[in-house]
Prior knowledge:
This protein is mainly beta. Helix content is 11%, strand content 34%.
Amino acid sequence: MQIATILLLLPGMITQTGRNPQSMPTVTPMFMSRGADGGPAFFIECRNTTNAPVSSGSPIWAFSRSAVRLDGTVLEESGGRIGPGLTVDIQPGAMWRGIIELRQSASGQSLAVALGANVRAPLNVPLSAGRHTIAVRCSNAWSDDLPFYWEN
Length: 152
């Protein structure tokens, strides 16, 4: 009886809070061996919650500055956006994956996608030393804020 009650309440709880964990992007720290031009990097996963395939190059995915929130503030677009390169369709229910690098300088190498990611986005975002948070948006859903620390 208790299980049935919980299952009946669950859809209402998701609707009331507006946060369905299945549709929220996830952000995971990514560690790379790289030179001084690097910064923190994050592996992003977003589920295609639509009923149709969506191109991996669609702007609904988190590979632009305006889809990144750092320390509670959405990053502003500065100039044009570099395209995602080769694209594939992300089927309904499947995952789109991306790598976001918070570069500490505009110089440096551009690395290829890796680990099954569809895109790699090096963003020039100089950080001060200390605690920060990052969140990303896919479609209209924001991930939870992920705290991280940066040392210059």
